[in-house]
Amino acid sequence: MIKMMKPFYTLQEGNDLKLVFAYQYFSVVKGNEVYQFIPVESNEIRINLKTKQIDNLTDVFVFQRGTRIFRIPLFQLLQISDLVDHLKSITTFYVQQVKSDIEEEQYNEEIYHLEKQNIHRLIDKALQDGDRELFMKLTDRLLTEEAAL
Questions:
Q1: C-alpha span between 67 and 47 (Å, rounded)
Q2: Residue in 74, 66, 80 with CA at minimum distance from that of residue 21
Q3: Which of 50, 62, 119, 143 has its CA 20 to 30 A from that of 21?
Q4: All residues at 6 or more sequence positions from 90 whose CB lies less than 8 Å from its CB, including other chains
């Protein structure tokens, strides 16, 4: 069971979140004893915020109590503890931010497609009305926008 889990620092790069741990910021209860994290092997948990998956499940974390040490891969720590609950509370803000960014991106794509469809309709109308000047202006705008992509 996780007793305490506070990242020393967090770093977000796009959809990836890195939680870095140091001494005294991460402890577990094994038996009835508290073991402190020591950054001997791995010291970070990497999470893909888009998929909500942990990327470094095979990394080994080391915990110590006095002279006793135990090593445990991250995937096992997830199975035998409430680590997922702690990670959820830490990453909630970041997951919501990525979700918001994705929704905004999808919204912007939809607007772009609607605007493009509207230009096509206006081009059709200009052709139907014989409005050469409007037709040229709209086709230039359409070509300029497509070239920008």
A1: 32
A2: 74
A3: 50
A4: 5, 7, 10, 19
Which residues of the chain fall short of a pLDDT of 50? none
pTM beyond 0.85: no
Torsion of CA 122, 128, 131, 133, to 10 degrees: 50
Map tokens 């005294």 to a residue.
Answer: 24
For the chain, give the number of residues: 149
Cα dihedral across residues 69, 71, 77, 79: positive or negative: negative
User: Whose structure tokens read 């620092």?
Assistant: 9
Instruction: Supply φ then ψ for residue 82, to 5 degrees.
Output: -95, 30
Q: State the pLDDT at residue 46.
A: 94
According to the model, what pLDDT value does residue 100 have? 60
Task: Please answer whether residues 46 and 54 qualify as being in contact, where contact means their C-beta atoms are separated by less than 8 angstroms.
Answer: yes
The reported pLDDT for the residue numbered 2 is 85
